[in-house]
């Protein structure tokens, strides 16, 4: 249980760096655990741990320097043949609420997991996508601002 | 905007239009005061779970908003000023309602059995007239107890100096209705209903919100509004349904307590409808009656909780403007309610700190904002 919480915290830290949304905003979507467990469910815990370990290494190498951290994230994660596509999937999941099937070359090299198909994580994941606050809009059909409020300036929360 | 400055700490029998205004100020405050506890419990439910419960609470809270608006229409009808912005308008939670010998707490808490018990207390039906304790000489649901605490419905002082309390919210409204009838008879309808009719909130500004809004121009309208408020709360004539055939608030909540729906024709306390699915664990572990000071200094949670209170204060100001001659403002105020929901969810999903298992929640500390 403790390891679970620790890993979840590392996943949150990683997500803050990948999305540029704050930890409060990310937790405010209520999707942290849902995305974390989706990854484990689709590609297994060992792949998840590998991503988290690479992030920890990137942080250690950066030693608190933000520019260096960005560089390290590119080296350890985004440019890594195995971890890059997973990392990009994490970003996409936060913004769109979808898991996208990993590229064919990844599936051929590292394994075609049965659950690795494109799907919407949950009905709520869609409405909580970071896409909406990023473009200054409400998710269509959800978080409705109320009848006739279209005459007013939008009131969009940061998340 | 001076009604909240009325000196008296006590209610007394309604003798003048000003007395009536004080009762109505209390009514508006009381209707509002139920909303933060209901919203807190409702939003603490994980979205997508406990749908039955969420919908039941939602119906009640929307009807409370209708009651608030009707009470404001009553206030405007008699030339008063509905004011949701005065100091003390939003109570400090937990607050208290009178409950016979002791008071019961009305607080901000997650959806739980204890919370539903509180809701049942808030919405309880009046005592049968033959079981009134202590104050049998008083005909309208007053019980005789002494307390020092500030209550949501102020104590009532009788002619011989006894301090009494309304046992239920319905009885409090009955006193308002009786007062309106008395004043209309004594002063004439045109001397009671002196308000500017353009300040009434009419159906074009208020739609699908828990029933029909009644614009109030005379005694008949006023009594119809009071009847709607009372019966949505406590049912018609001791029954579980109101005159429109809708289940009253008390029995709506009782369905959660008993885990079963009422069915048409059921007797009180014996629902015979289908089962109600409840998952008590699919709830955010929010802190009860939170305060800004409970949140760590410098944390995003604390900033967000303060932002919420500022937003809510502005929201009450906007409602007050809407209720004082600019009814079109009500439409964009309703838009603000969706923000309140989103901000609440964000607070409730964030742990207070690493070593605190509770999450945050709106504190509704409105007076603390300068």
Instruction: Give the overall shape of chain A, derived from the CA principal axes.
Output: globular
Which H/E pattern describes the elements of chain B?
A: HHEEHEEEHHHHHHEE
Domain count of chain B: 1
As for the CATH topology of chain B, it is Ferritin
Q: What is the gyration radius of chain B calculated from CA atoms?
A: 20 Å
CATH H-level homologous superfamily name of chain B: Ferritin, core subunit, four-helix bundle
How much helix, percentage-wise, in residues of chain B?
40-55%
Going by CATH, the architecture of chain B would be: Up-down Bundle
Determine the number of helices of chain A (DSSP H or I, runs of at least 4 residues). Answer: 9
The low-confidence parts of chain A are none
Task: Describe the strand arrangement of the main beta sheet of chain B, using strand numbers.
Answer: 3-5-4
Protein name (chain A): Membrane bound FAD containing D-sorbitol dehydrogenase
Region (Disordered) (chain B): 351-370
Domain Iminophenyl-pyruvate dimer synthase (chain B): 24-257
Protein name (chain B): Iminophenyl-pyruvate dimer synthase domain-containing protein
How would you describe this structure to a colleague?
The complex is a heterodimer of chains A (159) and B (370). Chain A is built from nine helices and two strands. Chain A is an all-alpha fold and 159 residues long. Chain A has one domain (2-151). In chain A, helix 1 (2-19) crosses helix 4, helix 3 (32-43) crosses helix 4 and helix 4 (45-62) packs antiparallel against helix 5 (66-78). The longest helix of chain A is centred in the N-terminal third of the chain and has 18 residues, at 2-19. Chain A is globular. The two termini of chain A are 29 Å apart. The mean pLDDT of chain A is 92. By secondary structure, chain B is mainly alpha-helical. In chain B, helix 3 packs antiparallel against helix 7 (249-258). Chain B is globular, with a radius of gyration of 20 Å. The interface between A and B is medium-sized, with 23 and 24 residues.
């Amino acid at each position: 249980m403790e390891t679970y919480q620790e890993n979840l915290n590392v996943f949150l830290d990683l997500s803050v760096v990948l999305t540029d949304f704050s930890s409060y905003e990310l937790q405010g979507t209520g999707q942290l655990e849902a995305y974390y467990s989706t990854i484990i469910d689709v590609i297994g815990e060992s792949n998840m741990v590998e991503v988290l370990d690479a992030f920890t290494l990137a942080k250690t190498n950066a030693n608190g320097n933000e520019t260096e951290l960005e560089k390290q994230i590119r080296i350890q994660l985004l440019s890594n043949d195995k971890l890059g596509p997973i990392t990009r999937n994490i970003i996409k999941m936060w913004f769109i609420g979808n898991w996208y099937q990993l590229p064919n070359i990844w599936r051929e090299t590292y394994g075609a997991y049965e659950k690795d198909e494109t799907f919407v994580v949950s009905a709520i994941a869609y409405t909580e996508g970071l896409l909406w606050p990023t473009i200054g809009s409400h998710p269509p059909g959800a978080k409705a601002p109320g009848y006739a409020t279209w005459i007013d300036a939008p009131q969009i929360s940061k998340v | 905007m001076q009604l909240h400055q009325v000196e008296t700490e006590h209610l007394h029998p309604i003798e003048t239009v000003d007395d009536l205004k004080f009762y109505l100020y209390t009514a508006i405050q009381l209707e509002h005061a139920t909303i933060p506890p209901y919203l807190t419990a409702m939003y603490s439910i994980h979205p997508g779970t406990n749908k039955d419960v969420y919908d039941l609470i939602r119906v009640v809270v929307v009807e409370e908003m209708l009651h608030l608006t009707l009470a404001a229409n009553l206030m405007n009808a008699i030339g008063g000023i509905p004011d949701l912005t005065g100091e003390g308008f939003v109570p400090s939670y937990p607050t208290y309602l009178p409950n016979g010998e002791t008071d019961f707490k009305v607080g901000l808490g997650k959806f739980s059995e204890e919370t539903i018990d509180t809701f049942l207390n808030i919405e309880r039906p009046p005592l049968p007239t033959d079981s009134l304790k202590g104050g049998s000489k008083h005909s309208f649901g007053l019980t005789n107890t002494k307390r020092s605490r500030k209550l949501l419905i102020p104590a009532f002082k009788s002619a011989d100096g006894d301090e009494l309390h309304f046992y239920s919210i319905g009885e409090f409204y009955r006193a308002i209705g009786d007062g309106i009838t008395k004043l209309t008879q004594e002063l004439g309808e045109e001397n009671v209903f002196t308000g500017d009719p353009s300040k009434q909130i009419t159906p074009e500004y208020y739609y699908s919100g828990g029933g029909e809004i009644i614009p109030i121009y005379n005694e008949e309208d006023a009594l119809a509004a009071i009847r709607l408020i009372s019966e949505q709360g406590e049912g018609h004539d001791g029954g579980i349904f109101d005159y429109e055939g809708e289940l009253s608030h008390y029995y709506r909540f009782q369905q959660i307590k008993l885990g079963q729906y009422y069915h048409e024709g059921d007797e009180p306390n014996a629902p015979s409808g289908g089962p109600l699915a409840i998952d008590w664990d699919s709830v955010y572990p929010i802190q009860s009656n939170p305060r800004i000071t409970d949140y760590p200094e410098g944390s995003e949670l604390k900033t967000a909780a303060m932002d919420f209170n500022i937003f809510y204060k502005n929201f009450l100001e906007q409602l007050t403007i809407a209720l004082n001659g600019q009814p079109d403002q009500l439409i964009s105020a309703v838009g603000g309610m969706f923000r309140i929901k989103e901000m609440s969810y964000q607070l409730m999903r964030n742990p207070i700190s690493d070593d605190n298992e509770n999450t945050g929640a709106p504190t509704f500390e409105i007076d603390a904002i300068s």
